[in-house]
């Protein structure tokens, strides 16, 4: 894995003369990066978002394929959340005395869990919009 290089002089300057908001953004980004890398290292694999066709121009076969893909995505997201739930449960006993990377890992799993719910809801909404467009374009079916 290749890690990006950074200019430490810029980071040092940012912390010395930067605003509180810039510091908060930097720290938040750094923690997110650490947490996301830990989540992947813990074996939680997020499924790829399915392609949703344009319902107004899609065929019935394309809509059925999309429905199958959305259902598989939902199953994959449920497995993804179960993985993060298991990781968070495993971390709970030592969470009170956890520091640094352990805390970031727990928060990363929690954030990934919550984000996956939002992403799944977005895919469902996109698919429902495609279904409505398909039905409007094909009223006889």
Give a structural overview:
The chain is mainly α and 141 residues long. The protein has one domain (8-137). The chain has four helices and no strands. The chain has helices at 8-17, 20-41, 60-91, 101-137. The model is unreliable at 1-11 and 33-41 (pLDDT under 50).
What distinguishing features does this structure have?
single chain; 141 residues; mainly alpha; 4 helices; rod-shaped; disordered N terminus
Radius of gyration: 21 Å
* Oligomer description: single chain
- First-residue to last-residue Cα separation: 50 Å
Residue-averaged pLDDT, rounded?
78
Helical content, roughly? over 70%
Question: Largest sheet at a glance?
Answer: none
> Structural class, judged by helices and strands?
mainly alpha
Strand content: under 5%
SSE diagram, text form:
Blueprint: H1 8-17, H2 20-41, H3 60-91, H4 101-137
Condensed summary:
This protein is mainly α. It has four helices and no strands.
